Amino acid sequence: MVPNANARHFLLKAKQRDLIAAAGGIERAAMICSYSKSVVGRWYNPDSPELMELPAIFALEEETGRFDMSEAIASSRGRRFAEDEATPVNGCVMSAHAETVVRMGELMTEGALAFADGQLTPAESQRIDRALSKVEAGTAEYRKILAGARASGGLKIVGGE
Q1: Which of the four, 6, 16, 76, 134, has the lowest number of CB atoms within 10 Å?
Q2: For 14-40, how does the pLDDT look when each residue is reduced to its tens digit (9 = 90+)?
């Protein structure tokens, strides 16, 4: 057996669930990628071993503008995506910072609740994974804003001279 195969599988399952959710849920994702609702439902189900096929990944990633599955696949092979050059992103750095802090707080809360009894159930693991997914999305957006700030020579955060 390949080392960490289970960890990679669960990471891909989590990323495809996030992608389906970002597309608007099972029914909308099924329309976008031209697969049946039952197939997309199996992809969304964390207990089902089925993974998305490449045409579905491409269709959903193009629709949502999120490339989590492609990045997870590359990461599982020891590779990563890199932007050609940073382009300024129109966003509020303070808002992104606050959102990231809130999402980290939610992650810590889920972890504290799950670890309180000294055991980690599959349901608790899934809740922590969902909170972690929100943290990842928030930090990715935050990093885009910061990259845009670097590319444009900085940002003025507070009014003044």
Answers
A1: 6
A2: 899 999 998 999 999 999 999 999 999
What does the alpha-carbon distance between residue 92 and residue 142 come to, in Å, rounded to a whole number? Answer: 9
pLDDT digits (tens, 9 = 90+) for 107-130: 999 999 999 999 999 989 989 998
25: CB partners within 8 A, 6+ apart:
none
Interacting residues of 114 by C-beta distance below 8 A, sequence separation 6+: 120, 121, 124, 125, 127, 128
Angle of helix 26-33 relative to helix 5-22, nearest 10 degrees, comes to 90
Q: Is 144 exposed, middle or buried (0-12, 13-18, 19+ CB in 10 A)?
A: middle
